[in-house]
Design a protein that fits this description.
The complex is a heterodimer of chains A (146) and B (500). With 146 residues, chain A is mostly helical. Chain A is 71% helix and 0% strand. The longest helix of chain A has 24 residues. The termini of chain A are far apart. Chain B is globular and about 65 Å long. The longest helix of chain B has 34 residues. Chain B starts with a helix and ends with a helix. Chain B has a two-stranded antiparallel sheet with strand order 1-2. The chains are: A mainly alpha (146), B mainly alpha (500).
């Protein structure tokens, strides 16, 4: 498991570095004296690939640090909640966006009961609409028809 | 005397009813997010950003700063009572704080940490008041070469003094710098990595990145990590007063912590977390009875708490005088300042003295308010820790989304939050830290810009760039940090291991 992490992170970083170098090449690189827009991205990309290589070698504290686990459910629902907020906000306005986001986010924890979460969603969307829409006066639609 | 007129200017600004009210609100919110694990100062700042757009710049920054240093007061509460730090820098406080609580001395621990935080913060503010004008004056003589040198120092420091392996810190800084290249190139105006998207021309939104990495990813990891059942500890006011011996033990540790914290606060890029860990290590190493650490040593809570508060206040020094953020949170706050039209940097003190001194005086007011909030009202926070996290996080998430959207009313920013939320979760699994990325994102463009200009000015003569006195000293410091990084990378038996 620890080995897996190390290689995966090294590959991940190497890919980012490679993208940077390739992207940087499409711009004028220039010389050391007069650097073009492409110079920095290429330099950073090269350094990142070097780091990726070093990451493969090193094992400093790797085992101690990677206690972080990856469970799908919370990650998926939290991210879905953000996406939901964005979409619902554009189609239906702030009130329903907050409501939907909270409902989706609450699914991230299986222990959450239906009724308390719906009440929470209702309360929060009301409070947010009042606070941001009315009190602060943000230029945001509270209710909208698609 | 000059300082007196500055102080009176500051007081006249900070003692207005509006600024007082928002200072109070800021420190209150800060303590709240500090106390509650699973939300941090960065998320809180993102959440109240929409509120700040309708405020004067001074009021806005006073409030945001209040959130920032307020959180450092509150972070120790959960660390002591629940062994669950409210802020990363309070993690080391739980090492001796939790044993104290288990031994029935929670009140004393909470009192000591609050007083230590106050002393640490106050000493750092005094440093700020005297050092900042001098530094700003010196900074007016800064040319591109000097800024290049100091920016390099900041980047290396944020990579090297991060929590995990220095190599991982370097990687994150580099990725941050890469993200900073997205957008129009400052020197030529050519759009880089924008894929013909007009919205990317100004670069990525720092608020979206910060909220994705620190807000969303933090919530996910808090849920994954599980949260303990809230304890039902009662803390009375009388139980908080420490004995004379405890006071005597506490003071030298507090002073040492303040010094360490101030140093790391001023060092651009390093923040309160490394400061608190280091001062704990120092206390343990110089103590006459190292065995008592981990079992409830007063020095073990006083030093780190003084240190993190000192670091947080001192971090304003490079931020306000050089425009180089002292920590990741300040990188975000700088973004907020810029949105308000106040450019942090050497000119800030001459162009906006009222903002600067008003802010500094508000630090005093805020710290006093925090003393009141954290001692007599400690019962409120203890009770607050009993609110279940599963009711809290959906609301926090919604507020984060609103906050991000409100910056430019751009739904694309929410997409960024999503992307960086994924990224943040991913890199946490790999064992990387996010703070260096944010600093790299802010400092990268500065570095590139100044390096290019310096090279042009010196006609390609790199020696010239590094040889001016200020640049040379910054580079020497950078080399020192690199040496430290190499040492801690090659010798795993460092403080962190013995602390962990």
């Amino acid at each position: 498991m620890a080995l897996n992490n190390r290689w995966m992170s090294a590959i991940f970083v190497a890919l980012i570095g490679l993208t940077a170098v390739l992207g940087g090449l499409s711009y004028d690189v220039g010389t050391l004296t007069r650097m073009g827009p492409g110079f920095f991205p290429i330099a950073i990309g090269a350094l990142l690939m070097l780091c990726a290589g070093l990451l493969c070698l090193g094992s400093d504290g790797q085992n101690a640090a990677s206690e972080a686990t990856f469970s799908l459910r919370p990650t998926f629902f939290i991210l879905l909640a953000v996406a939901t907020f964005g979409l619902v906000l554009q189609w239906f306005g702030l009130f329903l966006a907050v409501f939907a986001a909270i409902v989706v986010a609450s699914l991230a924890v299986s222990a959450n009961g239906w009724v308390p979460m719906l009440l929470l969603a209702l309360g929060a969307s009301t409070a947010c609409s009042l606070l941001f829409g009315v009190v602060i006066g943000m230029p945001i639609d509270l209710f909208r028809l698609p | 005397m000059d300082m007196l007129s500055n102080i009176s200017l500051g007081l006249s600004v900070s003692l207005t009813l509006t600024n007082l009210a928002f200072c109070f609100f800021g420190v209150l919110l800060g303590t709240l997010v500090g106390v509650l694990p699973g939300i941090g100062a960065i998320a809180a700042i993102g959440m109240i950003l929409p509120v700040t757009f309708y405020l004067e710049p001074t009021t806005a920054i006073v409030m945001l700063a209040g959130v920032y240093y307020g959180a450092e007061y509150g972070g120790s509460t959960a660390a002591i009572l629940l062994n669950l730090p409210g802020t990363p820098s309070s993690a080391v406080t739980s090492l001796d704080g939790y044993p104290l609580a288990k031994g029935g001395k929670a009140g004393i621990a909470l009192f000591v940490t609050t007083i230590a935080s106050f002393i640490g913060g106050s000493l750092a503010i005094i440093l700020l008041m005297f050092a900042a004008p001098a530094l700003a004056q010196a900074a007016l003589a800064f040319g591109p070469a000097e800024f290049f040198a100091v920016t390099t120092l900041g980047l290396v420091a944020s990579a090297g003094v991060a929590q995990g392996a220095p190599l991982k810190g370097v990687t994150m800084v580099l990725i941050g710098m890469l993200l900073g290249t997205i957008g129009a190139d400052a020197n030529t105006g050519i759009a880089r990595f924008t894929f013909n998207n007009i919205q990317l021309y100004d670069g990525l939104s720092i608020v979206a990145i910060a909220m994705g990495l620190f807000g969303v990813a933090e919530i996910v990891s808090s849920i994954q990590g599980g949260w303990r059942e809230r304890s039902r500890q009662k803390v009375s006011l009388r139980s908080m007063i420490p004995s004379k011996t405890q006071m005597r033990e506490m003071l030298p540790a507090t002073l040492r912590g303040s010094a360490i914290g101030s140093f790391f606060g001023v060092l651009p890029g390093a923040g309160p977390t490394i400061a608190s860990f280091l001062s704990y290590g120092v206390e343990k190493r110089i103590s006459t009875e190292p065995g008592k650490f981990g079992k409830g040593a007063i020095e073990g809570v006083a030093a780190p708490e003084a240190s993190n508060n000192a670091a947080v206040q001192a971090a304003f020094i490079p931020t306000l005088t050089l425009g180089i953020p002292g920590s990741a949170t300040l990188a975000l706050m700088m973004g907020a300042l810029i949105i308000h039209g106040v450019q942090p940097g050497p000119q800030m003190m001459s162009q906006h003295p009222a903002v600067f001194w008003g802010l500094v005086m508000s630090f005093w007011i805020g710290n006093v308010l925090l003393l009141i909030l954290n001692i007599p009202f400690i019962g409120v926070w203890v009770r607050l820790l009993q609110v279940p996290y599963n009711y809290l996080y959906p609301v926090v998430l919604a507020l984060i989304c609103i906050g991000v959207y409100s910056v430019s009313n751009n739904p694309g920013d929410l997409l960024l939050v999503l992307a960086f939320g994924v990224f943040g979760c991913l890199v946490r699994v790999f064992g990387f830290e996010c703070a260096p990325l944010l600093i790299g994102f802010v400092l990268g463009p500065l570095l590139e810009d100044n390096l290019r200009r310096a090279m042009v000015l010196s006609r390609g003569n790199f020696i010239n760039v590094v040889s001016s006195p200020i640049s040379a000293s910054a580079f020497l410091l950078t080399l020192a940090v690199i040496a430290w990084m190499l040492r801690s990378a090659l010798r795993p038996a460092t403080v962190k291991r013995s602390v962990a």
